[in-house]
Amino acid sequence: MNTIEYTPLNELLQLQVELLQSTLNRVYNRVPSYRKAMDALKCTPEAVTSLADLARLPFTTREDLTANYPYGQFAVPLRDIIRLHTLSCGVSNPIVMGYTKQDVAHRQGLTCRFLSASGVTADDIVQICLDPGMAFLAQELKEAAEAMGALVIPPEPMAVQERLRILADFKTSTLITFSSYLQYLFAELAESGMHLANLSLKRVVLLDEHLDMDAREEMEREFAVDILCGHGILEAVGPVMAYECEKRNGLHLAMDHLIAEVVHPATGAVLPSGEKGELVITTLTTKANPLIRFRTGELTRILAEPCVCGRTTWRMEPVYERTDGLVQVRGLNISLDQVEAFVRHGLARLSRGQVSKAVPHVMAVRKERFLERLELWIAITDEFFAGSLPLLHDWLREMEMDFEDAFGLACRMRPVELCTLQPYLNQGLRVVYL
Amino acid sequence: MLQIKNLNTYYSSIAILRHLSLHVRQGEIVCLIGANGAGKTTLLRTISGLVPSSQGEILYQGKGLLGLAPDVIVKMGIGHSPEGRQVFAPLTVMENLELGAYHRFGRAEKPEIQGDFERVFQLFPRLYERRRQIAGTLSGGEQQMLAIGRAFMARPKLLLLDEPSLGLAPKLVEGIFQAIITLNQEEGLTILIVEQNARRVLEMSHRGYVLETGRIVLQGSARDLRDDPDVQRAYLGKDYAQVAER
Ligand SMILES: Nc1ncnc2c1ncn2[C@@H]1O[C@H](COP(=O)(O)OP(=O)(O)OP(=O)(O)O)[C@@H](O)[C@H]1O
Ligand SMILES: [Mg+2]
User: Fold this and answer.
1) In angstroms, rounded to a whole number, what is the distance separating the alpha carbons of residues A24 and A293?
2) From atom 30 of ligand 1, which residue's Cα is the shortest distance away?
3) Ligand 1 atom with the shortest distance to the CA of B163
4) Does the domain formed by B2-245 have CATH 1.10.10.60?
């Protein structure tokens, strides 16, 4: 049992203020970009006397991190860095994250806390199945599980059949993976005809929350396992920064390592707890690469009321949506900007003209059993549509074929009236989950 | 037990402590390290009510301390062993200790106070040998023992110690630190200690804070601080060449 998780909330909040103030004192003196951003807002470290004052500080974005490539964001001399991690984000320079020895130790401590909240103990045989792109996380998870005394089967790249064989022969009790891979693995397992009774698998720990509760419970029944989730971003504090407890009603935030805020995605205004908005993270213990009000691009709510499990820490809701135009569907990343261009292009064909202004549309992700199915709701207005229904039907079928070609995934096109979309558009939502 | 929020302390309008926040939990030894003039003594004196011009919040067991008189704060259970072993030089060792228990007299605690004398002499047998000696003629180490003993006689729940090892020979330092650990472990005393001897104090503390020009720049478990390259460079006298820039 980790005592920090059960510390009275007021003590945790005092700890957060203390850590925030010393973090600000350090970054203001040592990271020129933070000083510049704070000076621009006429905000000194002294201006922050409570967690509410956090709102006075500037945001940090992924663009800020790449702009200071490679070492401009470091708050310690390079000599103190013992590990580097680069995150490529497709554009310009990669983000470079450095870790001091202490950062690495904190990340490991937090990872152990996450694993034990998931039920992992020294008696477990842990199998990690992550893509090579996730090698960095896999390494940290491996080290943490080893530190707990568990037996870890290293996350080497191999075919799914090989992994299933290991799952059975090595008596894996805990599997660590991602939702889409789990679905894939279990589908293969069901097809292989392997007897579940031959498996020792007790739990699955997921590093994302793309499986909703219904899907999870169905899998849990079918395969007789517990499925728990952790949530993390690559830029901060460890493989996860929040994790589920056995009650599974939200993910407990590591409040001793970070402050979580939820802000309005467009205005940046801080939203009260319980309201949905973009998750913003400030690190509290990170020495090499402290993050001040980092915009994660993730939409969630913070649940401040205590959890029935007895942990005092705030929870966040699973993240199903993002603000930054990336949607993960069945392991694929779909760019909403590309979808927008696709819709505009298609409508130009329908109306035989140029479509320059934004076309109202919403992407819908519908879950059926384990599988996500895509729908695209497009507002068809008089502007584009001359009234021939057969023509519209042909066009929709064409759009469905084109979409599959362009995005590698089937998507149903649904013409709707503008008023149907308005509630979503008013909230700034470009994608909804059903 | 002690919560400080956004404390600003001034000496004639110059801010010495700036938006300082820290906490001490019941049963902890928490240390405060920092360079000369960082404001460590000022912080302890502010907690004890000896520096009046402060803003912010100091909560001790949930009650605000700012604005209270020093003797009220002592009665609430906060003992202070000041920097520079301030003992009453013309008085004997016994008289100094009695003064420490001053506010407890008349509350019919005679036997208890007697027991505390014995406890002090147990901790510092040297003081027993010299109990009738004039405090001004004690050696530096003995005066430091007396200062701690006197603070203990007030039966505090929270003890503030300001550089107990200052100017003492290593052997004496070890004795003093052992006594502090005993007070924490056996008497359940919560301790906030300021020390130049960062290495030793980080060994015996649970947590620590690093103060730079009136601001907290780092805090954490004592082990984290010991391993921290910044702390090693600045306070543990680790050779700069060993931890210098790559
Ligand atoms: N009575 C006073 N009037 C004016 N300035 C003072 C007074 N006492 C202390 N100062 C100033 O406040 C600052 C902090 O002093 P303080 O004694 O708290 O430092 P310290 O951290 O205890 O240092 P040291 O390690 O040398 O004991 C110093 O710059 C000092 O000159
Ligand atoms: Mg001093």
Assistant:
1) 11
2) B37
3) 27
4) no
